[in-house]
Design brief:
There is one protein chain. This protein starts with a strand and ends in a 6-residue tail after the last helix. It folds into two domains: 126 residues, 3-Layer(aba) Sandwich (Rossmann fold), CATH 3.40.50.1010; 55 residues. The chain has eleven helices and four strands; from the N terminus they run E-H-H-E-H-H-H-H-E-H-E-H-H-H-H.
């Protein structure tokens, strides 16, 4: 089976716990993750507006680490497609354009309603909520997902998180099904 190509919308990169989980999963080779500088700019801009405790340089470092962790993640040359696309929120056209340019199969987003299926179908695309996306990866390779989660938890030192606290964080990020599935393999986390 061929690997899927997935474009991450800015809304799934905005919350650190979801971003860290998705980037970790992208390093497993189970799928190809893609995003653009425009997507980076969107999540960074919104995070800086809502979190005065963060600095631009901190988030630039995060961007650089993401780009380094996932080879060939940045989509380029999609800009000419934007004007020809029509979505309920015109500000989301750049995400669709990047998905088209990268021959993606899927856009992972919390905002599925912003990408109507009748429009995406024309481009052989669909959307998936990050909870459903991660669940699909769990079904594909539980061991790889458990390793990513274990490593993510190990990096959390200020403060460290127990398995229960980590799963609560995922639930707070609307990853309820994922948290429940991971709870069943808590001895591996």
């Amino acid at each position: 089976m061929a690997k899927s190509t997935v474009v991450f919308d800015a809304c799934v990169l905005y919350p650190a716990p979801v971003r860290d989980l998705l980037i970790g999963l992208a390093t497993t080779g189970l799928f190809r993750a893609r995003w653009t500088e425009h997507i980076h700019d969107e999540w960074v801009r919104n995070l800086l507006a809502n979190r005065p405790d963060l600095t631009c340089s901190q988030l630039q470092r995060t961007k650089a680490l993401m780009n380094r962790a996932v080879p060939d993640c940045l989509v380029e040359g999609y800009e000419h497609l934007i004007e020809s696309l029509d979505l309920p929120d015109q500000d989301d056209r750049h995400v669709l354009a990047a998905a088209i340019r990268s021959h993606a199969d899927l856009i992972v987003t919390f905002n599925e309603r912003d990408f109507p299926p009748n429009i995406l179908h024309k481009f052989s695309l669909s959307t998936e909520h990050p909870d459903d996306f991660v669940m699909g990866l769990i079904e594909m390779n539980r061991g790889a997902v458990a390793t990513v989660v274990r490593n993510q938890r190990a990096r959390l030192k200020n403060p460290p998180k127990s398995v229960v606290a980590f799963l609560d964080t995922l639930r707070n990020q609307r990853l309820d099904k994922t948290a429940l599935a991971l709870q069943e393999m808590d001895d591996r986390l």
